[in-house]
Design a protein that fits this description.
The protein is an alpha+beta fold. The protein folds into 2 domains: about 160 residues, D-amino Acid Aminotransferase, Chain A, domain 1 (2-Layer Sandwich); about 170 residues, D-amino Acid Aminotransferase, Chain A, domain 2 (Alpha-Beta Barrel). It is built from 8 helices and 18 strands. The chain is globular. The relative contact order is 0.14. Bound molecules: 2-OXO-4-methylpentanoic acid. 2-OXO-4-methylpentanoic acid binds next to loops.
Amino acid sequence: MSDILATDIKIRVKPTPQSRLGQLDFENLRFGREFSDHMFQMEYKDGQWQNAEIVPFANLSLNPATAVLHYGQSIFEGMKAYKCEDGQVILFRPEANIRRMNISAERMCMPAIPEGVFREALVELMRLDAGWVPQSETGSLYIRPFLFATDEFIGVKPGESFRFMIFTCPVNAYYTAPVRVKIEMKYARATPGGTGYAKAAGNYAASLYPARLAQKMGYDQLVWTDALTHKYIEESGTMNVFFVTDEGLMTPPLGDTILAGITRDSVLTLARDWGVPVVERRIAVDELVEKLENGKVSDAFGAGTAATIAHIATIGYEGKDYDLPPVEQREFSNKVLSYLNDYRKGRLEDKFNWNLRV
Ligand code: COI
């Protein structure tokens, strides 16, 4: 634990001689395609973290044998920063992302990242690139920390050298319209004993093919079911999934096949605080379909950092589409989304100690 908390690593800062900020069109941000001026990087070799620095955003140069390119020993996080009316930058729940990154690292045989350096790198990046944080109501700075094996060796074994990096992207909404999802009854995102609870790059690669099949059928994303029986709902797309039914706010419980989403936790915390009945239990596909048929699902949405709340318009199951009520009528998801927006923009009291003001 002590090395995870160590803060004696100094971060060197080499600011960019030429900011690209003037070229950014804040009105037309494309998710994940515009990159701020600086990035953080740090190496792990000879059993320790070293060479922590913030440098101008630039391409990487890698040996073709670099381990991550072959066996996918790579993890990442997604987090966001917001700009208040007075121009101050707020990092939303950074401690939760830092903790989860190290949970993923352990599962993937990677060294833990010293929490102090991680936090300091985030804060320093926010200071340097504050101008890149959108001020608009729907804009934010998406932050992408990631860690990958850099050994130049193509034998299969856990890496001995790694690189940890953080870059940031000014973004707008991830989804521009409510999504159509299909309940997946053949492929799986995660298996018991697998890496589903870790934010491992390979989990996302494995999800692409089944998602593409669904997209060919006119859906945007999948609702994943458990790998062994396909009887139970797990997640939706790259997000945790929620349904508001006659029982209350329902979501599957965490386990080794479900990512412990920070937005998921925020939604549950708020629902409990507001006295909304929360039902965290396995949700059978049959049971959900029966509720859909009987009009007992008034709201459904995915929750994740990129989208915050992605309203689900339609759920497809075995050739039949179930349409949910119009988004304007969704009481819970609209309330939670607007509350989270106000909270992260610093307009509300920081009741849960979620905002780190930079
Ligand atoms: C998130 O919502 O945070 C995600 O993981 C989506 C990301 C892969 C773009």
